[in-house]
């Protein structure tokens, strides 16, 4: 059980220097000088987790919306990184990842417009931006 | 897809900047500060897009997110009252137990994601070892063949050309659907944000109401509720 826990948490603790967890510091330094796909994925994962933490912990509805933007941006980073990776490994339509990122940006813009419209309407009726006070739909 | 030299340096600078700005977005007490930190995070991610040779997406990111969405956010922050938060009277996080649970959940999520990336990427790199090497060499050759820019100090990338071609060749239907979505979002947000008075002026006015009366309703000062 402790070994399993270590195996799961070691990469998380060492964050970006994945190889350093197993004592290969020289390898880690070598890889850090040549960041590849996995480093971009790790950055994307960290941004995603920061966004999730923001959504779950903050009380201010506007900051929650900003955290959602952070999450969508992390997903975009993954799309672009994989698009580049697939292009170099010779995939047929590798720019599909970039096109998907464009659509994600479009949907994020629409979502922000609608969400902030709801915030304005809510503030006009309820005079609050704290999510724990917005409970009109609770039965 | 292996960066080296200055690219690696810039990768670390911008990725660390993106993560710290993201953290500060979530932690900042003042909502305006949150928005500004989110802007710096988005710009850093745009720089990472440029390192990944997605110049078009980087430009779109800065124009749409920083120029459009974040300005919208700043307007809304200034429309709603955030004074109490700034003066430090209000708690900005949820209750301690909720925060503890969320942080534990996020730690587990981080552990799971990073473990999956470690194990998964090792397998992927082993499978694609040959194409990765060949692709890197091919890319270097391609970059040498690109047309030089007017000043001669750099070369003109054809990446945007490829994105545009592919967008209209394979993604034209989603493209049209996205434009409808944006239209719906515009109409919806206008409808959501108007006051009761404005709604009354548009929807529920009897036919016989004269144009002058309508104008009078519209000219009244902004009334909340």
Report on this model:
- The complex is a heterodimer of chains A (139) and B (225).
- Chain A is mostly helical and 139 residues long.
- Chain A has helices at residues 2-14, 25-33, 37-57, 61-88, 96-126.
- The longest helix of chain A is centred in the C-terminal third of the chain and has 31 residues, at 96-126.
- The mean pLDDT of chain A is 84.
- Chain B is an all-alpha fold and 225 residues long.
- The radius of gyration of chain B is 25 Å and the shape is extended.
- The mean pLDDT of chain B is 84.
- The longest helix of chain B has 32 residues, at 96-127.
- In chain B, helix 2 (31-51) runs antiparallel to helix 3.
- The interface between A and B is large, with 84 and 98 residues.
Uncertain regions spanning at least 5 consecutive residues of chain B: none
Strand content of chain A: under 5%
Shape of chain A: flat
For the record, give the distance between the C-alpha atoms at the N and C termini of chain A, rounded to a whole number: 44 Å
What is the subunit organization of this protein? heterodimer
The largest chain-to-chain contact, stated as pair and per-chain residue counts, equals: A-B, 84 and 98 residues
Number of strands of chain B: 0
Could you give the count of β-strands of chain A?
Answer: 0
Task: Give the tags.
heterodimer, A: 139 residues, mainly alpha, Helix Hairpins, 2 domains, 73% helix, B: 225 residues, Four Helix Bundle (Hemerythrin (Met), subunit A), 0% strand
